[in-house]
Amino acid sequence: MNYCGYCGRPGHNRRTCSNRKQNLTKAAEEGNLYAKAELERKPVTRHCGFCDLTGHDRRTCENLKDSVDELGTINLQVRKELCRRAHAHNFGVGSLVSVKARDYVDGNYVNVEHYGIIQAIAWDRVGYLDEWDQPSANADPVVVQFLSSTPHWPNERRFCFPFEIGYLGESEREDFSHWRFDGDLKILNAIRGDKEGESSLLDLTGCRKQAKKLIVDMEWGHSYTSRRIDGAKKMVESFTSCEK
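RE: above sequence
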């Protein structure tokens, strides 16, 4: 329940408080200029922070709710596709993988192959424009526990999925592949063990929550969100069955 910031009573706010208005009126009659200015001040028309329409705020915006529902459904479609591809490769927790990286060994930079076991997959972070297709070692949802011959190589690293996502066009893939696929994880022993996280993978509620967080954190407005949703729909439609 909301409480008035002026009198402390429930059911109204400071702007509509009858006690405040009475006190301002009395003070204005006594010559108080501030009270007179407050009574003469015209109410400000409030606009929704998401769609810019009047009559509601971001918290109750139906346009925001619809956008979250749409983007949440897209996130779910992305998760299903990645899950399908993981199953096709028999890839999951327990799979043995390797990655080649340049490392400093005995005073020289050389290509070293590191080996690791899939420790976890953060399915709850998989979605449209999220971290599943990024090259950053501290963002991607596949967590690997590594066995390494070099002492300073981290025991635990994050990587993207070790198979092509397949939604990119030819021109985009040509520019994209030099850092997305080269040096990525390679599956050596495809053994699926624990299916931890897959119950939340197909959770529409979680996908909607992820979508709302994206919209809020990125401070997207209604018009921009609609454009991103249109682009996301085309991305999902262009998923291919091409497997590497």
